[in-house]
Structure formats: structure tokens, C-alpha cells
Amino acid sequence: MERKIIxxxxxxxxxxxxKLEEHYHSVHGAIQEAKHVFINxxxxxxxxxxxxxxxxxxxxxxxxxxxxxxAQKLNxxxxxxxxxxxxxxxxxxxxxxxxxxxxxxxxSGAFVKMHQQEWExxxxxxxxxxxxxxxxxxxxxxxxxxxxxxxxxxxxAQVQPxxxxxxxxxxxxxxxxxxxxxxxxxxxxSVRRAMQSVGFIVERLxxxxxxxxxxxGKK
Length: 219
Description:
alpha/beta
């Protein structure tokens, strides 16, 4: 499927899929969205801990890289697992401008390392950040009580409604440890109800630029 690199409103890049009319990140700002939804509303709830994170949709590696940067400020040791069925290719990765837009030139090697790492193998990106990339469909996830935090960053329900069902959120609920958190940019009523139906305590939060609300669920 054709993919194009475009620049979002905050100057950071994302990938656009013309056939689906869908973007990997918000056109209002890829970095702004990632920081608001996954860092400010998720990762920032943890500090001075060892935590495990599951990302649903590893994609461009933006969420993983920002987490790597922010975890150092929060004194976190992170075991990060990214799920992706259709990996981004090297040519596309080279065109992404996250390192420069995040003013993280000194950590450019970490971003490259994340993408060059083999699939299905856990490796250290730094002393305090380990990464495992798993090439699989979300419906194949069978982890139990394994994660403190889930970044649910699948393509929108209007494009892939099968990724926002009770069946998928049940897998997410089972994958979380007690008191674990799931954050997502979506605020659709059907998504909230699906999360609640499998046991999540769900709250609406202010959304990132361009969105009024987002959702956060607790196990």
C-alpha cells in the first residue's frame, strides 16, 4: 500500500496512507499528540519505578522514542514492547524528522537502533530502556498481567473498526497488571463502552490539539 511522508502542523512528520485516507499521527501535530496522549496522560503517572509498556501500533517509532527521552526525566526503567503487523521501511524512517524536532540529536543513535533492531528479540537501547518489537496482529496478543501501561495507538475506528472492539479490549485488559493504565487518542462512545464492558474504569480527558477529548482506562 502506498505511503507518503507529510509534515503535520507542529512541524513533525507522519505517514499518510492515501488509499485509506488515514495518517499514522494527528495532522494537527504528531509530536504534540504523542506527548499529550501517551506521555502526559500515561507515562507521567509513573516515576522512580521499573515499568513495562505495551504499544499497540509501533509504526514510526515516535511513541517509543519520546518514551525513551521522557523516561530519563522521570527516572524510569522501561521494558517496552511494540506490536506492529506492517513495519515501516528503512527509506521511510530516514525521512522522519523526530530527532531534530525533539531537539534530541545526541540520542539519534537510539532512534536508529530502535528501527534497526531485529524483531522478536529483546535488546537494550540504554541501561534503563529495553525494547522488544513483535510483528503480529493485535488479535494475536496473549500476554497476561504483563504490563503497567498500554499505548493504544491503532488506526482509527473509521478505517479499522475491528481493532476497537470488545474482543480486542478484553485482550488489553488481560495483558495489564492490576491498576494498569490504557491510554488512547480516541474518544468515541462505542470505544468507551467497549472498554467499560470488559472491566475498565474509563475517564474522559481533554484531548490533544485538534481533538476535544481522549480516553484513559484503569484495570
